[in-house]
TrEMBL record:
It is a multi-pass membrane protein. GO terms for biological process: lipoprotein localization to outer membrane. Pfam families: FtsX (PF02687), MacB_PCD (PF12704). This is ABC transporter permease. Keywords: Cell membrane, Membrane, Transmembrane, Transmembrane helix. It comes from Sulfurimonas lithotrophica. PANTHER family: LIPOPROTEIN-RELEASING SYSTEM TRANSMEMBRANE PROTEIN LOLE.
């Protein structure tokens, strides 16, 4: 009978009491608060993960998984390239030459970089570029520009763009910058406006000639790897001392550290919503204890132990809390489905890497949300349950 007593009393105490409606109202507010808190946490964490993953994808493509760079001039050459291709046949390599430039069209100027590449090799390490150069043949002094630069300068295919190189050359009694006009033969769209404005690509022969670089020397080698964190260590072991290698993440350490800090801060702040809702659980249970003092005293006089009384109110708080957590999970997952299915929120493409909301809820974050909410519910139910078990039987029955 005692095993059935606790579930029976929990159900009874959860019912609406006409004499004490505020107790039920407080329990409902706790339920709604926990539901909303869990829902907001699920959607917020999935958005943070989604944006994190989108930025990683874009930055991996435009920054390249791995890049070999020289410590001294002339250290990255054709001999090193052939050596790497022989030792790592599973990787893709693309040598490049680069220069900082000012791009000019009419009265408009935009700073950036121009890369001289072998387009066939570069297409193997950069899928954005590979898509942009389909069915396009690049000749001498032809250039591939980003969509943002094309839109800003309002240019079309086969138009001319002037590139002003920062490297200067002597001319008479003065030093003048190198200037060359390139023909626009293609447009790429990386999804990140900063890269689309700053990066341009031409043939490696064109840039080597302009910068007076020997044909067998490069400014670096782009490498495509499906597992760059592992391959960087293998490549590092075979590189000569005058050459180094870096991964795409090394240029963005501070950016992703800031994202991670923002994610942790958001998790803590939103968890406070659940904590505030848990206060309603405490107040609801305490009001129930005060209202049921005579019932508690009678149960204890009939043989109910303090542990059983404590369990009744502990389970009462857990039922309210778990119901709220479950409802919050349902609402959160439903909200994610609605946001991913329907184009409710549209993001500006020149600011974010995607125009739709990216949602990606990791199992780790989901378990953290559920476990954190459950711990708060347990903690908030413990004190009222303890107070219920400490009811003085003689004092209550004498007053009754």
């Amino acid at each position: 009978m005692k095993k059935k007593l606790i579930p029976y009393l929990v159900k009874r105490f959860l019912r609406f009491d006409k004499d004490q409606p505020f107790i039920f109202l407080s329990a409902m507010l706790a339920f709604l608060g926990i539901s909303l808190g869990v829902m907001v946490l699920i959607i917020a964490m999935s958005l943070m993960n989604g944006f994190d993953n989108e930025f990683r994808k874009k930055l991996t493509v435009m920054n390249y998984p791995l890049t070999v760079i020289p410590k001294f001039y002339g250290a990255t050459n054709e001999k090193l390239l052939l050596d790497l291709e022989t030792k790592f046949p599973n990787l893709e390599f693309s040598p490049y030459v680069q220069s900082t430039v000012m791009t000019r069209s009419g009265a408009k100027l935009e700073g950036g970089y121009i890369f001289g590449v072998n387009f066939n090799d570069e297409a193997k390490v950069n899928k954005i570029l590979a898509k942009a150069i389909e069915d396009t043949n690049f000749g001498k002094f032809d250039v591939l520009v980003g969509k943002s630069l094309k839109d800003e300068f309002d240019i079309f295919l086969d138009d001319k763009l002037m590139y002003i190189f920062t490297s200067a050359e002597p001319g008479g009694l003065s030093v003048t910058p190198r200037i060359k006009r390139f023909k626009v033969k293609g447009v790429f769209d990386s999804g990140l406006s900063a890269y689309d404005k700053a990066y341009s690509y031409t043939t490696i022969e064109s840039l080597q000639k302009l910068l007076r670089i020997p044909s067998n020397q490069y400014d670096g080698i782009h490498i495509f790897s499906s597992d760059p964190h592992s391959d960087i260590q293998k490549i590092q072991k075979v590189l000569p001392p005058n050459v180094s290698i870096k991964g795409w993440w090394e240029d963005n350490v501070n950016f992703f550290a800031a994202l991670e800090l923002e994610k942790v801060s958001l998790f803590i702040v939103l968890m406070l919503i659940i904590l505030i809702a848990a206060i309603n659980i405490i107040s609801s249970l305490l009001m129930t204890v005060m209202n049921r003092r005579s019932d508690i005293a009678l149960l204890m006089s009939l043989g109910a132990t303090k542990t059983e009384i404590k369990k009744i109110f502990l389970y009462l708080g857990i039922v309210i809390g778990i119901s709220g957590i479950f409802a919050g999970v349902v609402l959160g997952l439903s909200g994610m489905w609605i946001l991913s299915t329907f184009d409710i929120v549209s993001l500006p493409k020149d600011v974010y890497p995607t125009t739709s909301l990216p949602l990606d809820l990791s199992l780790k974050d989901f378990l953290l949300i559920i476990s954190g909410a459950f711990v708060i519910v347990i903690a908030s139910s413990f004190y009222p349950a303890k107070k219920a078990s400490e009811v003085d039987i003689l004092t209550v029955l004498r007053n009754e």
